[in-house]
Amino acid sequence: MAKQDEQRLLVKIANLYYLEGRKQSDIAELLSLSQSFVSRAISRCQKEGVVKISVVQPSNIFHNLEKGIEERYGIRQAIIVDAEEDASDQAIKRAIGSAAAHYLETRLRPKDLVGVSSWSSTIRAMVDEVHAQNLKASGVIQLLGGVGPNGNVQATILTQTLAQQLNCQAWLLPSQSIEGSMEEKNRLIASKDVAEVTARFDDVDIAIVGVGILEPSQLLKTSGNYYHEEMLQTLATRGAVGDICLHYFDKQGDGVLQNDEDPVIGMELSKVKKCPNVVALAGGVEKVAAIKGAMSGGYIDVLITDYHTARGLMKA
Questions:
Q1: Burial 116-155 (b: 16+ CB within 10 A, else e)
Q2: Are residues 41 and 92 in the same domain?
Q3: What string of pLDDT tens digits covers the 316 residues of the chain?
Q4: d(CA 226, CA 216)
Q5: Across the chain, which distance is largest between two alpha carbons, in Å?
Q6: For residue 19, is it within any domain?
Q7: First to last CA, the chain
Q8: Which domain holds residue 7?
Q9: Residue 160 belongs to a domain with what CATH number?
Q10: How far apart are CA 288 and CA 213, in angstroms?
Q11: Are 175 and 309 in a shared domain?
Q12: CA-to-CA distance for 179 and 167, rounded, in angstroms?
């Protein structure tokens, strides 16, 4: 068979398959060929340049930047949302929340135990965007104490709302995020109600977390769950750049407080690192150092952030 004859047949098969949308079995019957011959021919079409496939990337999709972050920081997936340079904090959070809701809706398995670090307005934006029908998980568990010292229970409500959307049980953590003393923390951790929840941290399949910076978010300030000036100064002196579940780390991702001086009741950094799928929702260029530290520490598997923060991460 001459080369031109082979190419003629490849072009015929390529047109039928790619342009007319015919099935391989239909092409085989139409041209009196075996289906295995057609399958090999389709593979040859790409290898020999008869068919060139290009992906049309819309201007607000940032595949190359996502790939760059994945390769540089060694994470499984980066998801970058579009945001104007002067976008408000709330607009960025809504965009990240929407992308996170889509991630959860498309990846969640019925057997998954979902952990949520619930003092986060970005995670709250995600919960507001979860609308898919027939979602199912085995449970939603609160990864950070949910009662503010001033009675604020937004974190508890967020956890319960997500559990309702996922048609499953909610495991609430009946404590403040930051206890008044190590003695009070140790007493609560030993209590049955708290111990029953924290014992399940090792079973979390998907942990949805925020990444904080030293300056407390407005949500934390409103709740009362934040460190005051003296402790913030101690954290800064030790090189803290950010936190996950209010456990602070430095730019290498190493924790800056020892267990016996950390009054937070929440999923510890060591357990975050062991969780099989940690999805971090964090945006805003002021969080670049914190997000970089979290990825350097190996705490993040999937990062959902905005375009300008992503660019900052590539320059950091």
A1: bbbbbbbbbbbbebbeeeebebbbbbbbbbbbbeeebebb
A2: no
A3: 467 888 889 999 999 999 999 999 999 999 999 999 999 999 999 899 999 888 888 888 999 999 999 999 999 999 999 988 888 999 999 999 999 999 999 999 999 999 999 878 899 999 999 988 889 999 999 999 876 665 567 788 899 999 999 999 999 998 888 888 899 999 999 999 999 999 999 999 999 999 999 887 766 666 666 687 888 899 999 999 999 999 999 999 999 999 899 999 999 999 999 999 999 999 999 999 999 999 999 999 999 999 999 999 999 8
A4: 6
A5: 86
A6: yes
A7: 58
A8: 3-47
A9: 3.40.50.1360
A10: 9
A11: yes
A12: 31
Note whether 31 and 161 are same-domain residues.
no
Give me the residues paired with residue 208 across strands.
Answer: 116, 279
Nearest 10 degrees: CA dihedral of 266, 219, 96, 215?
Answer: -80
Question: Within this chain, do residues 29 and 69 fall inside the same structural domain, yes or no?
Answer: no
Residues 6+ away with beta carbon under 8 Å from 192: none
How far is the C-alpha of 206 from the C-alpha of 99, rounded, in Å?
A: 16
Give yes or no: residues 197 and 153 share one domain: yes
Q: Are 309 and 291 in contact (CB under 8 A)?
A: yes
Structure tokens at 95: 């965009």
**Total count of domains within the chain:** 2
Do 158 and 255 share a domain, yes or no?
yes
140 and 34, same structural domain? no
Listed in sequence order, the residues at least 6 apart from 108 whose beta carbon sits closer than 8 Å to its beta carbon are 114, 135, 136, 137, 166, 206
For position 27, which CATH number holds?
Answer: 1.10.10.60
Q: Do 168 and 138 contact (CB within 8 A), yes or no? A: yes
Strand ranges of the sheet holding 139-142, from the earlier edge strand across to the other edge: 77-81, 302-306, 278-281, 206-210, 113-116, 139-142, 169-171
Residue 54 lies in a domain: no
